[in-house]
Amino acid sequence: MFGPDPYHMIYLFSDTPFPPSESVIAFPFEQTWWTVKAYDQYGSTIYADPLQIYAENVRAQIIENLITGQRYASIQQAINDAHPGDEIVVGPGACQYLENINFKGKNLTLRSVDPNDPAVVAATVIDGGHRGSVVSFSGGEEGNCVLDGFTLTGGIVGISSRDAYPTIRNCTIGSAGTIAIQFWHGYEPTIIDCTILGLVKEQDDPRLVADWRLDEKEGIVAHDSAKGNDGTVQGGAAWQPEGGMIDGALQLDGIDDYVSTEFVLNPADGAFSVFAWLKGGAPGQVIISQQAGVNWLMADPSEGKLMTELKSAGRTGTPLLSQAIITDGEWHRIGFVSDGANRALYVDGVVAAQDTQTGLKGSGGGLYIGVGENYAAGTFFSGMIDDVRIYNRAVKP
What we know:
The protein has 397 residues and is mostly beta strands. It has helices spanning 75-81, 118-123; strands spanning 2-3, 11-12, 31-34, 37-39, 45-47, 51-54, 63-65, 87-90, 96-98, 101-102, 109-112, 125-127, 133-137, 146-148, 151-153, 157-161, 167-169, 172-173, 179-184, 190-192, 195-196, 199-203, 208-212, 221-222, 231-234, 238-240, 249-253, 258-263, 272-280, 286-290, 295-299, 305-308, 320-325, 332-338, 342-347, 350-356, 366-369, 382-391. The protein folds into two domains: 2-203, no CATH class; 208-391, Sandwich (Jelly Rolls). It is built from two helices and 38 strands. A hairpin with a 2-residue loop joins strand 35 (342-347) and strand 36 (350-356). The chain starts with a strand and ends in a 6-residue tail after the last strand.
């Protein structure tokens, strides 16, 4: 392993159980430090103290923020200093980059010097060693967060995407295990012109407390794939195995159809999020409500705009109304997110309304999908509902 100083030994020259047989003819820095790292089958490691050597023949490894012109000793150090919109370029060199990269929620571009050149991609290698993910996205990174033109290897997983949906281009993605890419449901990265050497696997989100996918074909049970809070289909609601936004969906008639569940979550307990797909509906109809509580997601009675009645229990509490019409007959993914101090409504991944409202009114009742909390006439939903999800954390869709 090489480094520009004893504290950044992140350039991997050789990883082998035998003494390296290759000759080093160029070092990454004029003043290069080198060391040996040994590890056993249990993951225990030991380092030799780094020693300094001087090179006459230098093949520099370049990590540069093109916006600021600043150069760095490691990729992670460059990301740590970067701002959204920055572009970091990484050059191929004599060694692999021995790092586990985390984008830390920053929508920036990290690329090789020429992502369209297969030879450059093959020579610009990030090796995650024998731990974690080689590259992690877990802070709400979006499509304008780009990883472009790298070979990823080592690590337990090549790329991990949680609460994020970045863009991955022109990469060769592998790992030391069997999983190349893992992601939470709804957060699969956009993959463009990549070679994937392993499995692409959807992982369970530990903070997902309910997930009614509504993909059943018959019966009156709406299964919860997260925690087993199965719902009961009431009325004559019809399963649509091929008609959903994600696989199947449930068709409600707007007269007496709905789904009832046991208790899942109390809004007064802290941060939480709820999302659902819908198609159809009319002004005043409700998508999700809580027994002995309020309507969580609904179309306002006037124009069919997304709104919520989840509000503070005090006198200052007011419903939150967006300007986004959701009853236009198209599929929309709607959601409500509270972090305990702020609340927001989402339509198709975009904030539709937001404000500050603390101490939401609580309820210990179960949920209704497709009708208001008091069964009022006009609140029964007429249309399709699909993939209802509830988290006990604030989610960025």
